[in-house]
Amino acid sequence: MGHLNLPASKRNPRQWKLLDIITAIFFGLVLLFFLLVFTPLGDSMAASGRQALLLSTSDPRQRHRLVSLVELGHHHKPIEACPANSVDHMPCEDPRRNSQLSREMNLYRERHCPLPDEMPLCLIPPPPGYKIPVQWPESLHKIWHSNMPHNKIADRKGHQGWMKEQGPHFIFPGGGTMFPDGAAPYIEKLGQYIPLTGGTLRTALDMGCGVASFGGSLLSEGILALSFAPRDSHKAQIQFALERGIPAFVLMLGTRRLPFPAFAFDFIHCSRCLIPFTAYNATYFIEVDRLLRPGGYLVISGPPVQWPKQDKEWADLQAVARALCYELIAVDGNTVIWKKPDGDSCLPNQNEFGLESCDESNDPSNAWYFKLRRCVTSTSSVNGEYPVGIIPKWPDRLTRAPSRALVVKNGIDLFRADTRRWTRRVAYYKNTLNLKLGSPAVRNVMDMNAFFGGFAAALVSDPVWVMNVVPARKPLTLGVIYDRGLIGVYHDWCEPFSTYPRTYDFIHVAGIESLIKLPGSSKSRCNLVDLMVEMDRMLRPEGTVVIRDSPEVIDKVARIAHAVRWTATVNDKEPESHGREKILVATKTFWKLTSSH
């Protein structure tokens, strides 16, 4: 029988189909690789996988039952570990949840917290290979790669001196997009126009900070900079900053006021932060103005300052500054420096942005979930003498009672008594309780109920920085803390905090039960179990927790401490203090996930 002479396209149909499939799969994988590596999709997909596990929460009734058992000490096992791919989980900065929200004014990149019943009750594990962090000051220049094995910044920004992988470490040459040769020469340039030495400037805000090398370099000048950036496609820039021991916070300038009081910062800095200062009738510039102390300095480097194809944006930026009577100190290349007037701005005036002063009903220091206002804060709206140059220089301002202490009754007397009390208490912590404060083992410290910042002030000679948290439902004393030359934020402790896991060495709280109660009531808004699970999330392995409260509360706290795998001891208070307080001191154990996870 003769063979049929078929055209080539008809021969071996199975062979050609198989080859087509293999080719399609290959090109599909190549496309997927590029999408995952070079676009934010990779981050969001990874986040989605992590969240799918985390959000498979059990029935709320089961959750409530578990919380009750833990509080009563009837739950004899430790609380379960979260899944292995939740090691960097931040409940309120969840890409999967937030990506559904509006892009307008970056709403989707702000804090959006799940309800407590929507959060799994579990303990965040460390990543595989996690080591106790490199100690300060060595950590400023290198950290363990295995503690946060995220190479994206090193790969994308290594040529700009942000960070590089070297053996088992990430190293930080100190560079940034606008200062690839390192922050030191850039700071030296700014020092020609701004009094960076001598104590005139103390508190600074670095917006869109990268890995915070600018803030880290300012520490040697005696300037305490709080650096912030959102959780974004660069992956973990704030996590790197905190691992280095630099004050930092996850935050986005979007639709709300930033969680700081009016006139908090002596110096505000943006290096290629890409905040559209003049958009929405200059709303973002107005927010920066609210935060900047009268007589303080604003520095913007990068777009739109003398930037190609951004002439209009640059002209608008200068027009807003003029409308607020900011003094132009210098334009040096792509860097502009302004000085805010000491007294009230020159509003009302004719300006193209329709800027007006806020009315008296607006408390400029109210900044917890507070929508941005398109009005300018007048200096007369805050009592006291606080302009740069009038407020005492650092370190004198630390112990001088500021006028803003009068936000509470008898505030000046209370301030002095509070300062003496915490000097005594911290001495007791160190000398009798033998806490590691003042040793290289402690760098990042949080005070969860800071009031006037007395605890942080008593640590000023130690190699630490303190995040002073003023609960949002308590008197708004955070302005006092900034007037002292310290830093902090407002927060409501019935919600998770905007930081990565394992970012603090030492967490302190006086009056823990007051953080979950309605003011002036015995009714709780949330529970101690969730709060202590959140403290555990923020705390580094082998980190320390100190909790002061009544004996009844401390008994409950000790039961919960066992469930979150802390080793705890209960101690008497210092003999000079009045009241019935007990002090619980706990250490977070360095546990690791078992292979079953």
UniProtKB/TrEMBL annotation:
InterPro entries, A to Z: Put_SAM_MeTrfase, SAM-dependent_MTases_sf
A Pfam family per the record: Methyltransf_29
Transmembrane segments: 21-41
MF terms (GO), sorted A to Z: S-adenosylmethionine-dependent methyltransferase activity
Record key words, sorted: Glycoprotein, Membrane, Methyltransferase, Signal-anchor, Transferase, Transmembrane, Transmembrane helix
GO cellular component, one term: trans-Golgi network
An individual GO BP term: methylation
EC number: 2.1.1.-
Subcellular location per the Swiss-Prot or TrEMBL entry: Endomembrane system; Membrane
Membrane-topology annotation of the record: Single-pass membrane protein; Single-pass type II membrane protein
Family assignment from sequence similarity: Belongs to the methyltransferase superfamily.
Name of the protein in question: Methyltransferase
Main location: membrane
Origin organism lineage: Eukaryota, Viridiplantae, Streptophyta, Embryophyta, Tracheophyta
